[in-house]
Specification:
Blueprint (H helix, E strand, L loop, with lengths): L1 H33 L4 E11 L4 E5 L6 E4 L5 E3 L15 E9 L2 E9 L5
Parallel strand pairs: 4-6
Antiparallel strand pairs: 1-2, 1-5, 2-3, 5-6
Length: 116
């Protein structure tokens, strides 16, 4: 009988460990994704597609760079929201973004003041 109890205790310990390791790994991985460094791109606003929620800018190094945006994307330097930028093509912008897979996701779009 004591051998069966010991075997059950060992089995319980193994099962608890098997459940704890994947959940710990998931928490660690999620933390890393949230700590991704933001990147910055400067360029001229070329196009906005409000239905696809994307903007395209022309930078000095890339002919076109595309970004997706969300409801949480901030627009600064203008009284317009992201959808309102459609009337501002040709304007200089700075886009703060993170990479999610292959996509560039804009976290902030800064409208640069027009040079006089």
């Amino acid at each position: 009988m004591p051998a069966i109890k010991r075997a059950l205790v060992v089995l319980a310990a193994v099962l608890l460990t098997a459940v704890a390791i994947p959940s710990f790994a998931q928490e660690s991985g999620g933390g890393r994704a949230q700590q991704q460094a933001a990147s910055v791109a400067n360029g001229e606003l070329v196009k906005i597609d409000t239905s696809a929620k994307t903007i395209v800018i022309k930078t000095a190094s890339d002919p076109q760079m595309q970004f997706s945006y969300t409801e949480d994307t901030r627009v600064t330097g203008s009284d317009k929201d992201v959808a309102g930028l459609a009337t501002m093509t040709g304007t200089s912008v700075t886009v703060h973004f993170t990479k999610k897979g292959q996509a560039n996701v804009a976290t902030e779009i800064e409208i640069q003041p027009k040079k006089s």
